[in-house]
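A note from the maintainers: we've had questions about how concatenated examples are separated. There is no special marker in the raw files; a new sequence line simply starts the next protein. For clarity in this README we add a label.
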Amino acid sequence: MEKIILVIIAIAIAYLFTPVSVKGSLYVVTQGAAVIPMPNTPIKVYSLKNFRQSLYQKQSFANQECMGLPDKTETELDYLKNGPDHHNAKANYELIVSCETATLINEINMPLVETIQTNKDGEFSFSRSRLDDLVLIAEGKRRVGAETEQYLWLLVIPKEGLLSQKLEINNGNLVNDIKIQAIQL
């Protein structure tokens, strides 16, 4: 009986320390419903616990410093006009940019678990501990006609999956167009 219990405990411990294989894809769905893979895009992998603390600090900053700011486009135009309010417009523009979600998330300075990169088809893979919740942050750009679209994705990976997990990072994970205060982990 003791041997059976020891074998069960050994199997449970081995299971806990066996990494989970994570495979996924990163893509954008256009307005015309075309799926566009995002090749050669770096993806930062953070511990959820540590990232959550850093995100809360950025959200607190935004609550204190970023409320009631003027419109970015109007402020940019005021600055470019070089009128009497030129210096004020420049300061407001810099504050607006510093309060954007992409700027605040990019300023998070903490140790990474690792950095991975998508392949030419927008696919990625890595192994993770089954004991840790993780956050993936990816930032990418793509040319659409004469314009460049910018993307910032955030995805929480919960502790699940027996031996593997399949992930998709797409429009549903975009955070660049929402206020940082609205992000919940």
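[label: protein 2]
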Amino acid sequence: MTQVKTNVDSRVFKAIQACAIAAYSTITEAELQAIMSAYQNRRDMIVNGLRSLGWPIQPPKATVYAWTPVPPEYSSVEFVRLLLDNVALLWY
């Protein structure tokens, strides 16, 4: 089970992490800043969008995830189903 869980959980496979470390160690500070800026722009877009909908969200400082509370009238599973059902409607 330990062998499976190391690759199944939400973290990145260790070999991919090692490759990313090697790749990032070869770029310049300016290139790194450009990458960080792109991630910050994406973060700001989702945070601003959620805030415009009235969601109380603080910008994450060191993660690619945006954490916000589930509306109190839903369980987390119910809310995800609602989101997926509504997104599915946009695709058809």
